[in-house]
Amino acid sequence: LSLQVSERNNSFVTVEGSRCPVIRVGQYSTLTLPLQQIFSDRFADEFSLLVQLRSLQREEHSVFTMLSPDSRIMLQIRISAYAIIFIGTQQRHYEFPVSGLCDGEWHRVAFSVSTTHLVLYVDCSQLEIVDWVNHGLEIGTDGLLMVGGILEGFETPFE
C-alpha cells in the first residue's frame, strides 16, 4: 500500500529509522484506493492479511475495509482495547478477545484465511484458530479499499 499512497487528505507515508514505511492516517481522514490499483486480476479465496499498527484509541474502530461498488462490506478488520473483529461476506463476523492492542506500541496482527480455517496471529504468536467452510469471500476488484474512516455516523474513526 505504501507505494500507492501520496500525501493527501491527512494521510502520508513516513519511514521510522531504517524500518518499513508507515502509512499515517489522521483521525478524521480516510485513505481510499480502488482495489484494481492493488490487485491485478482478482482477490484470492485463500490469503494472509498482515497489518502492523499502533493506536491509543480504546473505542472500537475500523482499521481496514474492502467495500463492494454498492458499499457492502466484503472484508473488514476492526480493533478495540479488548478485541479484534474479522468481518467477511456471507454474514461472517468473528470477534477474538485480545487485550493490549491500544497501548501506543507497535503490534503485528495477521489473519490467515484458508478453505477450512481462519487463524489469528498477534505479535507473531497464534492466538486462535476457527474452523469454517470458506467457499470464497467473493471479493471482487471493482470495489474500494478503505484504511481508517467510518461507515456509520456513530463510529469512532481510526487514527
Report what the structure shows.
The protein has one helix at residues 35-38, and strands at 11-15, 21-25, 30-34, 47-53, 61-67, 73-79, 83-88, 92-97, 107-113, 117-122, 125-131, 144-148. The chain is mostly beta strands and 159 residues long. A 6-stranded antiparallel beta sheet has the order 3-12-5-6-7-8. The longest helix has 4 residues, at 35-38. The chain starts with 10 loop residues before the first strand and ends in an 11-residue tail after the last strand. The model has no long low-confidence stretch (mean pLDDT 79).
Strand order of the largest sheet: 3-12-5-6-7-8
User: Any low-confidence stretches, pLDDT <50, length ≥5?
Assistant: none
- Name the overall outline: globular
Sequence of secondary-structure elements: EEEHEEEEEEEEE
**Helical residue percent?**
under 10%
Q: What Rg do the Cα atoms give? A: 15 Å
- Secondary-structure content class: mainly beta
Distance from first to last alpha carbon: 17 Å
Total beta strands: 12
Mean residue pLDDT: 79
> How many helix segments?
1
Could you tell me the strand content as a percent range? Answer: over 45%
- Biggest beta sheet summary: 6 strands, antiparallel
Explain briefly what this protein structure is.
Residues 94-150 form the Laminin G domain. The protein has one helix spanning 35-38, and strands at residues 11-15, 21-25, 30-34, 47-53, 61-67, 73-79, 83-88, 92-97, 107-113, 117-122, 125-131, 144-148. The protein is mainly β and 159 residues long.
